[in-house]
Every structure is written in structure tokens, then in C-alpha cells.
Design a protein that fits this description.
- The complex is a heterodimer.
- By secondary structure, chain A is of the alpha/beta class.
- Helix content of chain A is 37%, strand content 24%.
- Chain A has helices spanning 3-7, 53-60, 78-83, 102-113, 117-130, 146-158, 176-193, 204-210, 244-259, and strands spanning 11-22, 25-37, 42-46, 68-73, 87-90, 164-168, 196-201, 213-218, 223-229.
- Chain A has a six-stranded mixed sheet, sandwiched between helices. Chain A has a three-stranded antiparallel sheet with strand order 2-1-4, with helices on one face.
- In chain A, strand 6, helix 7 and strand 7 (196-201) form a beta-alpha-beta unit.
- In chain A, helix 5 packs across helix 6 (146-158).
- The radius of gyration of chain A is 18 Å and the shape is globular.
- Chain A starts with a helix and ends in a 6-residue tail after the last helix.
- Chain B is mainly alpha-helical.
- Chain B is built from 13 helices and no strands.
- Chain B has helices spanning 4-36, 46-51, 54-60, 79-89, 91-95, 105-136, 138-151, 156-169, 176-199, 204-212, 217-252, 261-270, 274-305.
- In chain B, helix 6 (105-136) packs antiparallel against helix 7.
- Chain B is elongated and about 90 Å long.
- The chains are: A alpha/beta, B mainly alpha.
- The A-B interface holds A 61-63, 82-83, 85, 87-89, 91-93, 95, 97-101, 108-109, 111-113, 140-142 and B 203, 205-206, 208-215, 219, 223-224, 227, 230, 306-308, 310.
Chain lengths: 265, 310
């Protein structure tokens, strides 16, 4: 880690606002969002549908443009950061190209960014190992299970040198056993790569288990109701979820969700 | 092989229906012939017979029905007669070493095929280019698409002579070019519609993904839109090639062409040789079948290579 990276936040939002104009009138997707994410943080965004957690992630990725406030990514505007390929984005659906093998799918960003063929090979090999998919490079997506496909899509986001990883409910469509396993793997991967991760989820245990910082959000308008710095150690076996510390954090998240009146209707 | 049974059943049904239809279709000609040969038929004069329905004629002259199956110039030839004629103008010519003489249907099918392929190439290229323009430009979408649809509402038989006249005015020699243009006119449309749908088939997350890589427009086209459109393209090509063949034959009909399957149909009509018409029709059907099958095989091959056969 260099000195500057510790002094400057990776992502900083101040008074961020986003209003969508729809046929049914304006929708206040984000209101007064203030958040600082430092290098190496694992930040989860949790809240009910419509709380703006995905919208906020998309703002960081410059896939949406805020209508007010400021947002910087690596000290730049989100769009500049996008042009500099500052982040890898993992969507809810794996979104692998069905006509490309797993290797070729991982090469997609590398081809676009102009890496040499030898470099591409090397990186594919490295990230396949990172997500535990060695030997599956030659397979087509339909030959893999849903969990494996999602791992391949994470490998794709890791293949180039972005130090931010943005994940939008990546494990939302998977069953709980697979999800537990992938959560464990994701933590190991995070420890190895020292990336800054923004992670959107619906699941309280998932958010608490993974994060160093949990951002609780509530809808109408989308806003942050609580930011919890996790007291849990960096090293987290799955059974940490039975410890009193874990349960306490989970309780606070639940309280935060309730305070936002998110389950009123 | 399990697929073969239903195919054969349908084929047998068609042939049976065809044979059955020959009797009522040919009974009048058969009776005229019998009358001329001095046989007694009822009613006795062809004028009276014209007032009588074919069913009554068949019922009152059961002996003349079989004659309808062996006429030289029948109104409806039997499948056997058409097959024989087809063989006489193809296989037999090959055996005589005259496969490409002007009496051979192979020669005429070759002429038609050549125009069809040129028209197909032209139409497909136009269709794909127009689809790309429509997908990438709102102006093209609003301005080209309505014309494309209108173009398909004009009967090609009305348009074909105009294309011939225009091309001869432009000093273009021969029938090849106008025939290919007419053929392209029919086949570009399915390709256009299919490709517009295909190029628009990538989902929003797939397009967002490329945006997160800061991919250029060209990269988005070649790495996402084009490969996504391949299954749509092949489906359109199969419709397109059949349309191109129809276009070529239509182009040969009103133009006084002397070669090509369309010309054989026209000449057969003018000279009252129904067997030649039917043989040319069957040859056109076989040609279309071969072309579509060829594209189907190409499609399987391409999609298998793309891992899309699942």
C-alpha cells in the first residue's frame, strides 16, 4: 500500500441526489447520500427494493448520472474513473457471452483494453485459479452451474487491474449452500487481492459476514439510515456467524432497516 | 430415421391427392380425345359436355377416366409424368453428355441459380447494412423502416417489368443484372427485419458491461451485437434465399427471357406443354429445397462452433 492511497478515500459521496423523471412523475432514487469508502474496505449496501442501493452502485460506475451533489472515484469524476477502467463490475446475472468459452469470456475485457495475447493467457490462468475454476476455461457457459457461472463473471471482473470491485447482488439468484461457499471464497479473494469492494445485497447475514462497513439504506426517497463499522476480525470462518459479536451487528442492521420504515408496506 | 416416417406419410398423402385430382381435371380432354377417336361418349358433343359437371361426366363415362392419366397434353399431369419429364430433361441429358444443352433443365436451373445467388448476395448485403443503420441511427430507423415495409406491399410482378425497363435505359446489357435486382428486392426484407431484431437482442446488462470496460462503438458491434445476431441472421437467410429464388423466377417470367426456370414455365405456357411447366416448377422446388438445406447445415455448423447448439 502506498502512502497516498491511505490519505485519499477511494469513493466519496457528498450530498448526492438522483431524481429519475418518469411518466408517473419524478422518482427520488437517492437523497442526501454521504459516504466515504477507503482503500481496502469491503462495503455492503443493504436495504429493501427501491432503497437506491443498486442505483448508488451504478452512480459509482458512471452507469447513472447523479442530479445533485458530488461523487468522486479515486479522486476523479465517476465517468473519468470509468474511462480509466478503475473498477470491475459484477452484475446480478452472470451475463457471460454464450458463444464464448469461459476463457474467452474472461478475455473479453482484456481484448477490449488491448492486452497482448500472451498477457491475456497469463491473466486468464491466474484469475481462473483465483475463483477456483481451473480446468473449466474451455467450457461454454451452459456447461457450468449457476454458481460456477457467477464465479467466472467475477474472474472476468478481476482479470484487469481495477482496484475497485463493484458487485450488484452477485449471489442473489443462488441457493444458500452455494452462496455460503461463494461468500467464503469472496473473502479469501478479497484478502489476497486487497481490492476495495462495493457489494449490494438483500441478505443481512451475507452483509454482516462479508463487510468491514455496512451501509443500511431505506426507500422513498432512497437514503442512508445507518453506517456500521464492523467490529469483526478480518479473518472470518463461516461459524463466526454464531458468535455474539456477529449477532449483535446483525441486530443493529435489522434495527436500522426497521428505523427506515422499510417494511411498512 | 424416426423423422423419416412422418415425412414419408405426408409425401404419400400429397402424391395420393395429386393422383386423385388428375381424374376430374383431365376428364374433359380425355373425352374429347375419345370422341375424336370415334368412341361413343355421353353427352356426345363437347359443347354439351361443357355444360355438364366433371363429376357427372366421370359417372357417365367411367371407361374414359383412365385415359386422363396418359394424355400428352393434360390439364394436370400425374406425378409420374412430371417425374418422367424431369428425368428426360435432367438425368437423361446427363447420360447423353448434354447436361448443359439448352434443352436441359440443369442448364436452365443453373441460369436461375446464378441470378438467385447474385440477388441473394446483393439483398443480404443491403439488408445487413440497412439493419446496422437502423439500429445505430434513430434517423435511419424513422426514415428507412417505413419504406422497407412499403416496398414489400408492392406486388413484385408489377415492379419487375419496370426494373427491366429502367436497367435497359441505363444501358445494362442482358437480363442478369435486372433479374438479380428483382431477386434482391424480395430477399433483403427478411434479412433486414431479422438483423434489426438480432442486433438489438443484447440485454441492457450486456451493454452496460461493455460500458464499464469503456469499449468503443466498433468493439460493441463486433464483440456483442454481431455475434448476438448470428442465430437471427441464419433464420433470415433461409427465408431470404427462398425469396431470392422466387424473385429470380418472377424476374424471368415477364421479361421475355429465353433461359432460366421462369422462362421454361413461360415457354411451356405459350406452347401448351404443361409437362414442361410442371417439370420446371418441380425443378425450382428442388432447387429451393437444396439451397435452404445448405443454409441449414451452415447454420448448424456455425452455431455449434459458437457453442450455441444447447
Amino acid at each position: 500500500m502506498t502512502i497516498e492511497s491511505t490519505t485519499q478515500p477511494v469513493i466519496e459521496a457528498r450530498q448526492l441526489d438522483l431524481t429519475f423523471q418518469t411518466n408517473d412523475g419524478p422518482i427520488h432514487a437517492l437523497k442526501d447520500v454521504n459516504l466515504t469508502i477507503d482503500k481496502g474496505d469491503f462495503v455492503s449496501f443493504i436495504g429493501p427494493s427501491g432503497c437506491g442501493k443498486t442505483t448508488f452502485l451504478r452512480c459509482i460506475a458512471a452507469l447513472e448520472t447523479p442530479t445533485g451533489g458530488t461523487l468522486t472515484v479515486n479522486g476523479m469524476t465517476p465517468d473519468e474513473a470509468r474511462r480509466k477502467r478503475a473498477y470491475g463490475y459484477v452484475f446480478q446475472a452472470a451475463g457471460l457471452y454464450p458463444w464464448r468459452t469461459i476463457s474467452k469470456n474472461i478475455k473479453l475485457p482484456l481484448e477490449i483494453m488491448g492486452y497482448s495475447a500472451a498477457e491475456q493467457e497469463e491473466r486468464v490462468k491466474k484469475v481462473l485459479e483465483l475463483v477456483d475454476l481451473e480446468g473449466f476455461g474451455g467450457k461454454f457457459p451452459w456447461q457450468l452451474s449457476g454458481g460456477m457461472q457467477q464465479r467466472a463473471s467475477i474472474a472476468r471482473a478481476l482479470a484487469f487491474d481495477a482496484d475497485i470491485l463493484l458487485m450488484d447482488e452477485p449471489f442473489g439468484a443462488l441457493d444458500e449452500i452455494v452462496r455460503d461457499h461463494l461468500n467464503e471464497q469472496l473473502l479469501a479473494l478479497w484478502a489476497r487481492t486487497e481490492k476495495t469492494i462495493g457489494f449490494v445485497t438483500h441478505s443481512i447475514p451475507e452483509a454482516v459476514y462479508l463487510s468491514t462497513k455496512i451501509v443500511v439504506m431505506s426507500p422513498r426517497p432512497g437514503r442512508i439510515t445507518d453506517v456500521i463499522d464492523s467490529p469483526l476480525p478480518k479473518e472470518r470462518p463461516l461459524d463466526i456467524r454464531d458468535t455474539p459479536e456477529f449477532i449483535e451487528v446483525a441486530h443493529r442492521v435489522r434495527e436500522g432497516l426497521r428505523a427506515g420504515h422499510s417494511y411498512d408496506d | 430415421m424416426k423423422n423419416l416416417v412422418p415425412i414419408l406419410v405426408v409425401l404419400a398423402a400429397i402424391v395420393a391427392l395429386w393422383y386423385a385430382a388428375v381424374a376430374p381435371m383431365n376428364i374433359r380432354i380425355s373425352l374429347d380425345q375419345a370422341e375424336r377417336a370415334g368412341q361413343v361418349v355421353t353427352p356426345e358433343t363437347s359443347r354439351e359436355r361443357r355444360e355438364t359437371s366433371v363429376w357427372v361426366l366421370m359417372a357417365s363415362n367411367p371407361g374414359a377416366i383412365s385415359g386422363g392419366y396418359a394424355l400428352e397434353r393434360p390439364r394436370l399431369p400425374t406425378p409420374g409424368q412430371v417425374g418422367q419429364e424431369l428425368w428426360k430433361t435432367t438425368g437423361e441429358m446427363v447420360a447423353k453428355g448434354r447436361a448443359f444443352s439448352k434443352r436441359s433443365l440443369i442448364y436452365h436451373a443453373g441460369i436461375t441459380l446464378k441470378s438467385t445467388l447474385w440477388g441473394f448476395l446483393l439483398g443480404t448485403t443491403l439488408g445487413i447494412l440497412a439493419a446496422v443503420a437502423i439500429v445505430y441511427s434513430r434517423v435511419a430507423d424513422m426514415s428507412l423502416m417505413p419504406w422497407a415495409i412499403i416496398s414489400q406491399t408492392i406486388p413484385i410482378v408489377a415492379l419487375a417489368p419496370m426494373i427491366i425497363v429502367v436497367s435497359s435505359q441505363l444501358g445494362i446489357e442482358g437480363r442478369g443484372v435486372p433479374k438479380a435486382v428483382i431477386s434482391a428486392y424480395l430477399c433483403y426484407f427478411p434479412v433486414l427485419v431479422g438483423m434489426v431484431k438480432g442486433l438489438r437482442s443484447p440485454s441492457l446488462p450486456q451493454l452496460d458491461l461493455l460500458k464499464t470496460y469503456n469499449a468503443s462503438g466498433a468493439q460493441g458491434f463486433f464483440k456483442l451485437r454481431l455475434p448476438s445476431s448470428v442465430p437471427y441472421l441464419f433464420t433470415s437467410l433461409k427465408v431470404g434465399i427462398a425469396a431470392a429464388l422466387v424473385g429470380t423466377i418472377v424476374g424471368e417470367l415477364p421479361t421475355g427471357a429465353v433461359s432460366g426456370l421462369g422462362a421454361r414455365i413461360l415457354i411451356g405456357d405459350q406452347f401448351g406443354t404443361p409437362l414442361a411447366i410442371w417439370a420446371a416448377l418441380l425443378a425450382a422446388a428442388i432447387l429451393a429445397g437444396l439451397l435452404v438445406t445448405l443454409l441449414d447445415m451452415l447454420q448448424r455448423l456455425a452455431l455449434r462452433r459458437m457453442g450455441l447448439n444447447a
